[in-house]
Amino acid sequence: MAFIPPGENIIETKKCKLSGKEFFVTDYDRELLEKISPTYNGKKLILPNPTLCPDERQKRRLSFRNERKLYHRKCDKTGKQIISIYSSDKPYIVYDQKVWWGDDWSGFDYGRNFDFSRTFFEQFNELLISTPKVSILNTRCENSEYTNHTIQSKNCYLCVGTTKSEDCYYSHFIKDSKNILDTTFCSWSENIYYGIDVTDCYNCFYIKNSVNCRDSYGIEECENCHHCIGCFWLKNKEYHIYNKQVSREVFGEYWGKAKKQKWDIKILTDIRALKSDCPVKNMHLINCENCFGDQIENGKNGFMCFDSKNIEDSRYTYFSPKNICCIDSTYTAPEWIEYCWEVGSTVGVSNAFSTFHYWYWSHWYYVHACQNSDSIFGCASLKNARNAIFNTSYSVSEYEKIAEKIASHMISTGEWGEYFPTELSPFWYNETVAQEYFPIKIDEALSHWWKWKEDEETSSYHGAYYEPRDIDQYDEKIVGYEKAQKNIDELLWWILECGMTKKPFKIIKQELIFYIECGMALPYKHPDQRHKERMNLRNPRTLQETKCSNCGELIATTYPPNYEGKIVCEKCYQKLIY
Length: 578
Prior knowledge:
Layout: E1 10-15, E2 22-26, H1 27-36, E3 39-40, E4 43-44, H2 54-62, E5 71-74, E6 81-84, E7 94-95, H3 97-101, H4 120-130, E8 133-134, E9 138-139, E10 150-151, E11 166-169, E12 172-175, E13 178-181, E14 184-187, E15 190-199, E16 202-211, E17 214-220, E18 226-229, E19 238-241, E20 244-245, H5 248-258, H6 263-275, E21 280-281, E22 285-318, E23 323-332, E24 337-371, E25 374-380, E26 386-389, E27 392-393, H7 396-413, H8 433-437, H9 442-447, H10 476-479, H11 481-493, E28 496-497, E29 504-505, H12 509-518, H13 527-536, E30 544-547, E31 554-557, E32 567-568, H14 570-577
Parallel strand pairs: 7-8, 9-10, 11-13, 12-14, 13-15, 14-15, 15-16, 16-17, 17-18, 18-19, 21-32, 22-23, 23-24, 24-25, 25-26
Antiparallel strand pairs: 1-2, 3-4, 5-6, 19-20, 26-27, 28-29, 30-31
């Protein structure tokens, strides 16, 4: 039987029209959808129950988000060479950030009337192609041109979702942190390498699901620990190696050796043995009430929520802080959103559905890349607008009448309540986040009329590769200034080959300084491969039922069925750990 939130009743069981999977709609789902449904011209346009299962809805939203594929191209207004998430072979108008946010153009210039003899999505796609796109989302940053979805950060390179951070490289969703490399989901931390779900930690390497730890290497599920190596499930411990107490001297000897080896493989292998003996909590929840999901903090009544904070009465939310009464939200910025359905990449919005890339105010329906607007329907690339439909401004009464008529037309065509189809996405499926979480092959993509670039993985480099030296050979304190500088210049000039994918990659000066200062071995994998492996180490974004290994109670968990360790409920975990 399908897992449903306690106290709710299934009112409809449906079959997903894409995957064929069975999914359910509960009485609370229905209640939320009716609250979110808009009223036009005195008529409430009720949103229907979804036709796709939660995974397919999530996949569809993610197919509109390109995070990590950056390209050189020209601004279509100024001719300036820019960095963009849109490759030059795409049929879109792309403006440099400063130009897009400037006042010398208007989205109203692309306004048009709605044709009731055609479908809504067909006409919206034409609007999407004709309106300017912002080259990259990088706001109030310094020396961070190669970052995306990044706010108020400095000296960052190839980062995504970074906020108020400094000196971060090859990382993903970093907040209020400094000196971070190859890390995924990290807050209030400093000097971290290869971290996954890290909070308030310092000088840690290969660290996962840990809080308030420092000076440690290869630790997982630890809290308030320092000077630990290869440890799992420890609380308030110091000077431990593989969960056993050691002297400070023994730890020091091991610490120096560990960082100079390719320990990402060794640590994972050695910790696996510890996991079989130490139980894990079924879900990673902090200060939550009636929540089901993973990596939730300060939540109340959340179901199927992941990487979310300060949520209430919401479900199917992913990477979303401050959600109230929302269904299907993905990548919302750290400001509130409420009464929303099927929204992505949003900031400060209420009463909205089927939108992507929008910022501030309310009553937005079927909107792409708009900001500071209120009561807009079927618009793209609009700023500071009121009562607009297809980028055309109307009086309040005209807006209400036309919006009601279009919504009724969409009900007749079966489009009302559906999110933008993936085939409308400006991106190839295999350059979006959808390919990370829902990987598919080219045949499947093309069978759905989704875009795909066949030669994505090919490389134009066919030259020689550099064989990195031991990290000591780049440290002037060890080999002297002249030899170190010669080796550094050589390394920064040449290209390395990924030991896994054979793709070429380079080391940049800032990250080399980090490795030298920390005594870390140079990476031997391409940044994309390192990112992929980190993401694979996180729990799946799904829920399933299992039994607590300690008390036998039926519980929900995000750990996969093949997990080899013990999974326990919250009550048993607290008894065992303290």
